[in-house]
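User: Design a sequence. Structure:
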């Protein structure tokens, strides 16, 4: 039973904690494994210079690397999970450090592997890969060789690797500026609950405050301070973009976008179709903002008004066990085998359920080849969103479970492009189930409002971010340097385009671009938008289809890393190279807005 007090980790009942014994039975067993790995790593040196001699030499080496890599993955996962459960635990922190050190040692010891494989003539290695003994490694090598056209000489590769620490400077410096230096200068905000410290973290929380004066003060105070550092931040971001363009040119890619998409064989059309399709459907988004303005009773809709919940929370109390049963019922279209396995895991050792002192905030799923797919939660019985979180992380865990049980180790890992599909798929089924069983109009409105905001944040907003990244990189590639002025102009135009005519912006609203850390990992955010588009399409396909549609979805879950992401989603029944999945997701958004409007504007 959950209580209001936050316990120490040592006082958490065993039934509420994950059971990590499928990884290691004890810390001593972990330490013994660590020692054995160090010895195995030393043995890899004997393979250096031998890989091209014969298929047997290559196979022996890759099997040794596989054995060590699996052990290190397990080793790190166990240490990381313990650390996440209690970040105040010095032993867990030390174990993470030891795991990272052994991983670094492994990388250095096997740095010869990729260049030697690349040096083997294509005709030779392709013939070897057809041998039966390479069955479990063929896809791994095929994906490795896919990068060959953009691999440089050994000397050039060494030079590029030497500048990697420098390449991280813009991102690292921005993180220090935002989270350390700026945090000390942002001041405080007066709220009805008392004085609140304004930080990068509380900024988002305060923008959800029901008091408009609090939101306005938060917004203006935050961006005023950011404006003082606009040239510094613009210079940091320009450095990050210039680095992306440099690497793309050095490796012979057509563009920085091509460089980002190449490894997963994602056509540029997927990226550009996403932006174009969202553009065509912006009227539905503008309609939602007009509805928000009307329901909130505002004469002007400001940028700081769009994050506060449109519908006040409704009381929906669910114990942890009740939340598991909601997931069981909502996910029933996936079949009893799926729901039984997931729910049994949630109830018996997969999940770390509640908050404790020192525990990492938020939620995640951590699936590895050995052991169960573990889930960190901070479940609260009075928050319906935590039921969605349980289903979301459960989707990740089941994706990992099916990937592990249907693939050899060297090809079990799926890509980030695919990762959000199984999780948001589950969220959609939970939403449909709760909406169908809502007890009254107020509950329906609350669920609809929450779902609209979730799709907006994942599809529309991430697409806007993706478009900004594309424009900034194309500007540099055309020979125009980035400055605070042109970065602000690009982002301002996007704000006006996406938010529409109802929105009134401040003079410095476009400084939002300068506080998005994801921009320092270029061409990443679009995957959130494509992920939710694919998951919505597949959820409707499964719930409205029959056994074949469900089986197609399970083929996707079982693919792991055996296919490239576009191919694995096509097997599931969705073609991400067309605009249809994105259009279908946008159609659903428009339909949800219409339904929400009918409830909220009733006389």
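Assistant: Done.
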């Amino acid at each position: 039973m959950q209580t209001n007090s936050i316990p120490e980790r040592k006082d958490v009942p065993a039934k509420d904690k994950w059971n990590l014994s499928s990884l290691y039975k004890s810390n001593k067993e972990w330490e013994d494994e660590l020692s054995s790995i160090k010895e195995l790593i030393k043995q890899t040196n004997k393979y250096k210079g031998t890989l091209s001699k014969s298929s047997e030499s290559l196979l022996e080496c890759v099997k040794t690397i596989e054995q060590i890599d699996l052990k290190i993955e397990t080793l790190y996962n166990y240490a990381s999970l313990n650390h996440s459960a209690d970040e105040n635990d010095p032993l867990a922190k030390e174990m993470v450090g030891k795991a990272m050190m052994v991983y670094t040692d492994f990388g250095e010891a096997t740095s010869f592997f990729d260049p030697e494989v690349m040096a083997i003539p294509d005709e030779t290695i392709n013939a070897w890969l057809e041998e039966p003994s390479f069955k479990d490694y063929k896809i791994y090598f095929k994906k490795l060789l896919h990068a060959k056209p953009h691999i440089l000489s050994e000397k050039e590769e060494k030079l590029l690797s030497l500048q990697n620490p420098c390449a991280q400077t813009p991102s690292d410096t921005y993180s220090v500026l935002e989270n350390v230096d700026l945090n000390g200068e942002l001041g405080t905000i007066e709220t009805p609950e008392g004085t609140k410290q304004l930080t990068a973290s509380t900024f988002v929380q305060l923008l959800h405050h029901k008091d408009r004066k609090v939101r306005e003060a938060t917004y203006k105070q935050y961006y005023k301070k950011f404006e003082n550092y606009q040239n510094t931040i613009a210079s940091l971001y320009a450095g990050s973009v210039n680095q992306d363009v440099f690497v793309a040119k050095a490796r012979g890619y057509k563009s920085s976008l091509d460089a980002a998409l190449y490894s997963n064989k994602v056509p540029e059309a997927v990226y550009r179709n996403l932006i174009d399709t969202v553009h065509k459907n912006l009227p539905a988004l503008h309609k939602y903002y007009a509805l928000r303005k009307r329901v909130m009773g505002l004469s002007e809709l400001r940028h700081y008004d769009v994050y506060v919940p449109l519908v006040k929370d409704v009381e929906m109390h669910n114990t942890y066990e009740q939340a598991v049963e909601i997931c069981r019922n909502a996910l029933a279209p996936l079949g009893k085998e799926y729901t039984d396995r997931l729910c049994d895991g949630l109830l018996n050792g997969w999940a770390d359920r509640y908050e404790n002192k020192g525990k990492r905030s938020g939620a995640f799923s951590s699936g590895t080849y050995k052991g169960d797919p573990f889930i960190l939660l901070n479940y609260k019985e009075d928050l319906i969103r935590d039921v969605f979180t349980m289903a979301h992380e459960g989707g990740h865990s089941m994706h990992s479970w099916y990937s592990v049980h249907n693939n050899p180790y060297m090809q079990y890992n799926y890509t980030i492009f695919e990762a959000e599909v199984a999780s948001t798929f589950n969220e959609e089924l939970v939403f449909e189930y709760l909406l169908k069983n809502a007890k009254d109009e107020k509950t329906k409105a609350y669920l609809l409002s929450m779902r609209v905001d979730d799709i907006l944040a994942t599809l529309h907003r991430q697409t806007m971010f993706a478009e900004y990244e594309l424009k900034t990189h194309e500007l540099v590639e055309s020979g125009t340097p980035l400055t605070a002025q042109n970065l602000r102009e690009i982002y301002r135009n996007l704000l006006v385009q996406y938010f529409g005519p109802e929105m009134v912006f401040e003079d410095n609203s476009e400084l939002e671009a300068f506080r998005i850390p994801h921009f320092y990992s270029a061409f990443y955010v679009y995957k959130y938008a494509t992920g939710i588009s694919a998951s919505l399409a597949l959820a409707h396909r499964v719930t409205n289809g029959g056994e074949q549609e469900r089986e197609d979805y399970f083929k996707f879950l079982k693919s792991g890393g055996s296919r490239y992401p576009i191919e694995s989603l096509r097997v599931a029944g969705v073609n991400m190279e067309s605009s249809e999945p994105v259009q279908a997701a946008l159609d659903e958004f428009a339909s949800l807005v219409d339904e929400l409007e009918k409830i909220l504007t009733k006389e």
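The CA atoms of residues 248 and 415 lie 21 Å apart. The first helix runs from residue 27 to 43.
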